[in-house]
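for the recovery benchmark. tokens below, seq after
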């Protein structure tokens, strides 16, 4: 049953990420053509600032999910209700704080981009884009954490996928008929809000015993502050780049943020695709850890890591060769700023590699709730990112900022591998490092050959797609073949495990 739930979560998350990927690729192109690079840069920048304000969530969601693993596994309904009641209270407080911080941003942000866009448009855009987060705090969050902890994240994923499709279709129609960008984003926020109704209906029917007004057990969320620290670090590491570019590059900041946003669109698409293979598994690992099934954890983790790294390095090989041709085709006829920059392609590929190589270990850390135990490593990661980025941005611009991100990810990814081995899955570090090393070598060879064979200055999506399919097939054969030859037993066990889950 546990494996089947994990499989359903994985498939649903994969489907969601494909939908989000398509939306993330299609909509920005329409926005760029209809409204220009400055508007696109402003939307990207505002969303990143709102992500910072999302710290108002204060680790409530993560702490609640961790706290729910054990009572859900033991069918302790009263305990579940008490935890959810505490979660509701914290979410309401977080929502009020987020609203207050948003109003501050409305007053301050226009000064960062003075003279580049109309201040009134910018202020209203901040309010509109903040709407979806407010809905999550006040209405959706308490249901989402319950479904996630109970391995039913696939329900939220499928509802979100449907909402994303509707949002994309409506937005494209509005842009086509000449609607203003503010109206387009307002309608998109409205579509997002409709998700609440469907999630609430499902949760109420599936869990009639739910009581969000039971006696709150705030002590159950003891990991809240530690989880918040990790959220702070995650936001700093993942979102500092846009903030530094917005503040430090003066009159050309929005144009540079637009360039950054196009490459990050590719990065996010890849990360979303990869995350779909891990999001649905955290709750399953959490249940195993809660029941102290050490041997099951070790075997499951090894299979998960093996599978994840194989898929990840196939994707990385394709990205390294195809990112520049994609950007060239995507931004064709856009002349207000230079988008095709080879060094950026390399740095963003490295960032994706280092972001994802840590995911197997990070999944186990999150499932175990080891937020307090890893807080100092997380802080150091943030310090490295900020100090290197600020030190280099003035001379090297975006390249300097990205180098800071590469340095911080490199340190933290290695740390996670070793921490997981020492404290959670004993003795896995050597195996993990060998798996990573052999795949890195394979990817380097694939990229060197691929960049000499595949043209880097394409002008057609059809041409790009044909080369992408060819690169994908070759990468699959090479990466899968190498990993099969080096670990045939692990490969066969993984296939048997997947077949067993599918048959159920």
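predicted aa per position
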């Amino acid at each position: 049953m546990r494996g089947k739930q994990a499989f359903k979560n994985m498939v649903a998350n994969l489907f969601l990420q494909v939908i989000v990927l398509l939306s993330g690729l299609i909509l920005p192109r329409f926005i760029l053509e209809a409204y220009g690079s400055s508007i696109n840069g402003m939307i990207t920048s505002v969303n990143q600032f709102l992500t910072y304000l999302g710290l108002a969530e204060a680790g409530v969601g993560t702490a609640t999910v961790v706290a729910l693993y054990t009572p859900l596994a033991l069918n302790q309904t009263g305990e579940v209700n008490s935890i959810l009641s505490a979660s509701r209270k914290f979410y309401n407080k977080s929502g009020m704080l987020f609203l207050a911080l948003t109003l501050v941003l409305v007053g301050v942000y226009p000064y960062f981009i003075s003279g580049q866009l109309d201040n009134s448009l910018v202020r209203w855009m901040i309010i509109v884009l903040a709407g979806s987060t407010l809905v999550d705090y006040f209405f959706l969050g308490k249901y989402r954490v319950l479904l996630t902890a109970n391995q039913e994240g696939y329900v939220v994923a499928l509802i979100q996928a449907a909402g994303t499709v509707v949002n994309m279709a409506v937005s494209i129609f509005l842009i086509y008929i000449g609607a203003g960008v503010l109206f387009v984003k307002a309608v998109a926020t409205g579509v997002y809000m409709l998700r609440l109704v469907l999630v609430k209906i499902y949760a109420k029917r599936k869990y009639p015993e739910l009581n969000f007004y039971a006696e709150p057990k705030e002590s159950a969320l003891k990991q809240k502050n530690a989880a918040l620290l990790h959220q702070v670090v995650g936001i700093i590491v993942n979102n500092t780049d846009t903030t530094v570019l917005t503040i430090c590059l003066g009159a050309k900041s929005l144009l540079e943020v637009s360039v950054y946003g196009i490459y990050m669109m590719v990065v996010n698409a890849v990360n979303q695709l990869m995350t779909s293979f891990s999001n649905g598994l955290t709750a399953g690992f959490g249940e195993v850890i809660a029941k102290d099934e050490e041997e099951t954890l070790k075997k499951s983790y090894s299979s998960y890591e093996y599978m994840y790294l194989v898929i990840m390095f196939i994707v990385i090989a394709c990205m390294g060769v195809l990112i520049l041709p994609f950007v060239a085709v995507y931004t064709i006829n856009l002349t207000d700023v230079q988008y095709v920059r080879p060094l950026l392609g390399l740095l963003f590929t490295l960032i994706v590699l280092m972001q994802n190589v840590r995911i197997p270990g990070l999944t186990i850390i999150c499932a175990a709730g080891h937020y307090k135990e890893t807080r100092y490593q997380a802080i150091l990661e943030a310090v490295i990112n900020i100090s290197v980025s600020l030190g280099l941005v003035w001379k090297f611009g975006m390249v300097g900022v990205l180098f800071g991100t590469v340095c911080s990810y490199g340190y933290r990814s290695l740390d996670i591998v070793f921490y997981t081995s020492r404290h959670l899955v004993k003795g896995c570090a050597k195996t993990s490092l060998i798996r990573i090393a052999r795949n890195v070598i394979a990817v380097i060879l694939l990229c060197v050959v691929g960049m000499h064979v595949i043209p880097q200055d394409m002008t057609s999506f059809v041409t790009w797609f044909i080369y992408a399919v060819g690169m994908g097939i070759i990468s699959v054969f090479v990466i899968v073949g190498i990993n099969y030859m080096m670990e045939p037993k692990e490969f066969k066990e993984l296939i048997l495990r997947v077949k067993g889950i599918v048959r159920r």
